[in-house]
Design brief:
By secondary structure, the protein is α+β, with helices and mostly antiparallel strands. It contains two helices and five strands, in the order αβββββα. It has helices spanning about 5-50, 120-175; strands at about 50-55, 75-80, 85-95, 105-110, 115. Strands 3-2-1-4-5 form a five-stranded antiparallel sheet. Helix 1 (about 5-50) runs antiparallel to helix 2. The radius of gyration is 31 Å and the shape is elongated. It starts with a helix and ends with a helix. The mean pLDDT is about 90.
Length: about 180
């Protein structure tokens, strides 16, 4: 039985999209590995450049009540021993509701300034996974959009072809 040209186009587009999906899968994995590697390098560098010290909280941090049990980080007054052995006082991040006298970890740069901690192992892995998933979702959306547009064009072409055939055969059929 002869096949319509639209069937051949649909088959060709299907195979191209399958190949593109396989390439997309590889691209997503590569993007995830690259993102993981870059953040891991940054975490290592920051871990070597920064020093972790213990600070003692001087004021009770405000408590934010959350139904989910999440306690955000807030800035509280605290004291700690600096890199040169001097006693320093300033605002440091602590979990909401941390009482006076509690000890919290603080990260200092080479100048003794309080900075964010280096990325954790979980954050490094999460960045890689989320990058890969993001590439997959974005690329998959593009491929799905292409498929929908091609199917619409094919269905429209088939409908036009059927209309032309019916114009030829319809009058003979109804006699």
């Amino acid at each position: 039985m002869p096949r319509r040209i639209t069937d051949l186009v649909e088959d060709a587009v299907t195979w191209m999209l399958i190949a593109a999906a396989l390439l997309l899968l590889v691209a997503a994995m590569v993007a995830g590995v690259i993102a993981h590697g870059r953040l891991a390098e940054r975490a290592l560098a920051e871990g070597q450049e920064r020093t972790r010290v213990t600070a003692t909280v001087l004021e009770t941090s405000p408590l934010f009540v959350s139904d989910s049990g999440y306690h955000p980080r807030v800035a509280v007054e605290a004291t700690w021993v600096g890199l040169g052995g001097e006693h320093r006082t300033g605002r440091v991040p602590a979990t909401a509701g941390t009482p006076v006298g509690s000890e919290v970890a603080v990260w200092l740069d080479h100048n003794g300034t309080v900075v964010e901690p280096p990325p954790t192992g979980f954050e490094v892995v999460a960045a890689g996974v989320l990058t890969g998933v993001g590439v997959l979702l974005l690329g998959g959306s593009v491929l799905a959009l292409i498929w929908v547009r091609v199917k619409r064009a094919i269905n429209a072409a088939n409908a036009r072809h059927w209309d032309r055939e019916w114009d030829d055969i319809g009058p003979k059929w109804t006699r």
